[in-house]
Amino acid sequence: MSLFSQIWRPHGGVHPPQHKDASEIESVTMPLPEKIILPMSQHIGAPCTPVVKVGDTVDVGQVVADSDAMVSAPIHSSISGTVTAMKDVLLPGGRKSQAVVITSDGERRPHSSMKPREPKTFEEFIEAVRDSGMVGLGGAGFPTHVKLNPKNRDQIDTIIINAAECEPYIVTDYRECMENSWDIISGIRTVMTFLGAGRAIIGIESNKPAAIAVLSHMAATINDPRRSITVKALRTRYPQGAEKVLIAECTGRIVPAGGLPADVGCIVMNVTSVAKLRRYLKTGTPLIRKRLTVAGSAVERPMNLRTWIGTPVQDVLNFVGLKQPVRKLLYGGPMMGLALMDPELPVLKQNNAIVALAEEDVQEIPASTCIRCGRCVDACPMSLLPTSITKAYMAKDTDALKRLSTMTCMECGCCTFSCPAHRPILQTIRMAKDILRTAK
Amino acid sequence: MEHTLLVSSSPHVHCGMNTRDIMRDVIIALSPALAASVWLFGLRALAVELVCVASALAAEYLSRRVMKRPQTVGDLSAVVTGLLLAFNLPATIPLWQAAFGSVVAIVVAKQMFGGLGQNFVNPALVGRIVLMGSFPETMNNWVDPLKWLSDPLGHLGTVDAVSSATPLAQMAADSTVEIDAMPLLFGMRGGSLGETCVIALVLGGLYLVIRRIISPMIPVVYIGTVFVMTWLLGADPVTHILSGGLMLGAIFMATDYATCPINRSGKLVYAIGCGLLTVLIRLYGSLPDGVSFAIVIMNILTPLIERVVRPRPFGNKRGKAVAK
Fold this sequence. Notes:
The complex is a heterodimer. By secondary structure, chain A is an alpha/beta fold. Chain A has 14 helices and 17 strands. Chain A has a six-stranded mixed beta sheet, with helices on one face. Chain A has a four-stranded antiparallel beta sheet with strand order 2-8-7-4, with no helix packed on it. Chain B has a single domain, classed as Ammonium transporter fold, CATH 1.10.3430. Chain B is 57% helix and 0% strand. By secondary structure, chain B is mainly α. The chains are: A alpha/beta, B mainly alpha. The interface between A and B is large, with 78 and 48 residues.
């Protein structure tokens, strides 16, 4: 590692209001839903194909959809009941996906495949991870078995656990740290063992001192004379939990443009993912439940809810209660979250929050002309020039867009957040990326 | 409960700031210098400032109307331009000339290039330079500060007051002349309305930095470059940074968003360039002060600077990213 990269830290970032009011509220479990809707696309990669048909009886934890593709993850039923329909749903972002609808019989009958796993070899471990249906729970939903099996496995020396949770409102990872810290630490040990990585760093923002204390204590109590698991407190700023930013903050290593964390010897896992993976190996329960922070100005009682994957968002809203009409309904937080067009859409694997905003928080202010103040340039954690990218996009100049490293944009939204002219900068950059993708 | 869901792309929150807030902060930052100008040069100063602001607003409103463009007079940027132009004029200037300068600044330098953010040179400086070229006599007619107190209202009508030499003009005429720094801090010298009171300008600059409207980079580097260069070239650095339009130019004009480079390294190059050109014009040119021309020249070079000096995107390495 060069001296330069050791002292270099990503600049930029913004400080949106945190709204982490739900952070000290203990998780509660939602009642069983009457029906669940399981879209075939709940991860990055190839959508699954249903392996059940209408009329089939399914059990809790039974695989209902799978795919032969490398980058994909099986989908399990979170309830027992009957497959009552196959329908198309329109997911936020405009993706259409087939979905399996299962009506509950209220019995919670476990499937025979749910048994503890004891992998001995790396190959068995990866197979178990795949069977768990695990995807990155930080929001991206990248299949975990692919992430944990990089081509250059012998070069991985560091596991980074992402507990930064820099998005406003969301506190699910914080609750995981407070409620299941032992699963986190032992999960990290399991991953380190199978990957042969010598150290793990838990990156967490300094605004969560209780979680930092709990995890540091846990890491110190386990039998680990080499102190290979450390907790790193990071300054509080958005987007501290973005993968490349987190790697730079924790290790000083810079992932090359277009590269993967593995290129700099790192694997980044969300803190809830690693704990859930540990619980899967111990109990055999695949990814069928997910903790959600349900908050926002329209919500009566903000909560951390253990929901069954596939539960319609409307059921979640009914459970927490609403005090005002919802004007904007988000999968995730307000910086990177996706707006839902229909509250009948289900909770997905990679969801970590449902944010319901009332009218007062949803102001559409028309864009005015760019005054070149440079706030977007200063805010960009990737050191891009959003103003120049916008100009190049308007001119449809693909060469300029390439020169400006447009594809390096991770869509964190800091530019749009900080623009005093209220320009939709990020949306323009998304369209610019689209031009580059089709130009290839 | 009825929900009408709005679907839009992320982010769904905003910092809450808008263009008008920024302009309002700049006006607040200019107000100490405004007060100082009235104290130093009397009600006549206020008259010039009011005329400049009013004609700038009128020019902005009318040009947007004539061009059938969305009305932007509410963003307050014309107030800033009008004030800055007034700050660059002597107290004795005929009011119609001040108004003419404002119209040139807004119509020619700003609106003809597309309005706020699109102009390639600072509009107020264009107004000043046009006035300097058109009316050299009235633009160089300086009065001594506080002189108006002897005739508090009578001075309003005076146009041909007694000329007083500015410190820079004195130094240009005789490089050995010694000038006391203390009076310069409080603006006790002849000069343009808003440029003389250094303390008021620095106060405004600090406000802008604290409110994060500007980064301190451009003023600090610009003034620092002038200090170092005049010192190296054997002139009096303290007098040089405290006199002429340097404080006004470095804090309020060189930092104009539209006409300075947008990234940090570009700003550094730009500020050094402003400093070098100012010193060259002051010491070797025929003009006593070079701030306006230095900034305008660097304004014109800004697109070039932005092309050459740009930030390195994350992960684009000169060398390569290494794991171990």
